[in-house]
Predict the structure.
Amino acid sequence: MTEESSAPRRARLELVVRRDAGDENFEVRQIGSGVAFIQSRPQRLPNGSFELAEVASRVDGQHSFILKNTGTDRFLLLSEAEKFLWEQMDGHTSLQQIATAYVLRYGEFDFDIIPNLIRKLQRAQLLTMTPTSRLRQALARHRRTPVAKMAETALFALERINISSNNVQPMFNRIYRWGGFVLFTPLAALTCALLAVAGLMAGVYLWPDAERVVSGFGGHALMAVLSVKLLFLLTVGAHQLVHGLALVHYGRRVREFGFTFLHGFVPTFYVDVTDIFMGSRRARVVTAVSGALVHLVLGSGWLLVALWAPMGSFVQAFAAASGVIQLQAFVVALYPFCFIEMDGYHVLVDLLGIPTLKQDAMAYARAVIRGRLPRRFTRQEALFATYVVVSTISVAAFIAFNVWMIVHAS
Amino acid sequence: MGSSADTLIFLRSVRLFRNIEAPELGILADSLRERPLKRGQILMREGDTGEEMFLVRSGSLVISKAVTGRVEQVLARVGPGDFFGEMALFDRSPRSATIQADADTTLLTLDRAALTKLTEVSPRAAAAFFESLVLIFIERLRASGDLVAEVTRWGLEATGLDVESR
């Protein structure tokens, strides 16, 4: 059987078309759906109902665009060619004419680009992606096992706990007006830098006496660890709060703020900062970094408290442990090479101008593993390879370090 | 106009009358009136009133339903041996579609009085007639379902609407 004959037949409509309404003169026309499709005239949203922001890749010079529907607050990532097509969709130009314009502009035609773009626009697919938990996938596969079933049910129940609000912009505006704006001044940056230096010096000073410092927990180690963790959770809320204030600082909207269990078991606060996509690169970088700086400031502050507290006291042990965990959080949040899309990753992709770096790099790695090596090794492919290799080494090193710590401690 | 014998021969080839014996069919043939149509002539328009059904003796017609302005959707084409217009015969409602000859055509009309007469003279023949009618209705209902599916598919393909991944 040939490929043509196995392809599904296009639907046809048979229509009677009269010369005038009610006239006896008529002709019967058969209209195939394919003809109707290429003659349809897609209409984009009217001006003012959308925003378009440019993201320039510093690796291969290509430009991407973020398209925002201001009515629904949904975002789409468009390539330069897709942006060109989007601009043609004025309600007067047929798809056939748009395709012709595309060929004249780019000298070639990709037969999938228009249907794919239309599907994307119809779905208004968001850039923020909900990560699919590997753990949940594994539990789903073993649902017949009672333990897996119970774990899945518990995670599902926890995952449904979501305390959030979509109407948080007034709250963030008020916090910003009542002093939040200070965080985005040169004085705040200078204070942060001085605190960081002082905190690190305190940490270096305390390091030789680490065992004596930790001994301050005495017989309350479990309670101490739990309270340090609880306090840390609250500071995650502060981290997200500062992200939101950064949005206000740059005139963008905070769409949501809340608390949930990430993947069903990691309690966390979160803030929806997607509106910053429409801001400048500087605004996006400041928004990403400012949240993480909360941990640097708090970590440094705790280490200074530990330095001034009596040696071997509970206060010193608590402050030192909190300081270390805050500095760890700072590093983890800003370290971009770990396959997790945290603040540092967002800064990296913004500086590179490749919003889908991780996805593209993973796709590249999969292609290489399957033996589908590209003909040319471009700068972009070198970047993908570097991201995958460095992230793999980083994750391996992190695991190895923790294993070493556990072994050493025991 | 064809002779009564010719009409009888024609009726025997019509599926609707296949199970009716010759004597009863003769009674029915006497009640039918012939109606010629020129190519392009409109027999009835959607919304017209009427209380008869039609058998196509020769030629062909297009059955269509108004969609917008000058455009109508073709629901079916009928040719020799087919029949149409039976809905108004039974429920007296306005015609549901426009019917127009797309070739020179000859029709036979069957009105309510002729059907009543057949029922009175031969209940068995009337039962055979109605049984055939129901079977053909079922086929047409199935065809309507197929048409709805085809039109829906057309709409999805024509707009490029991606339903599967939604």
Chain B touches chain A through 29 residues (CB under 8 Å). Residues 123-159 of chain B form the longest helix (37 residues). Chain B has one domain: 4-158.
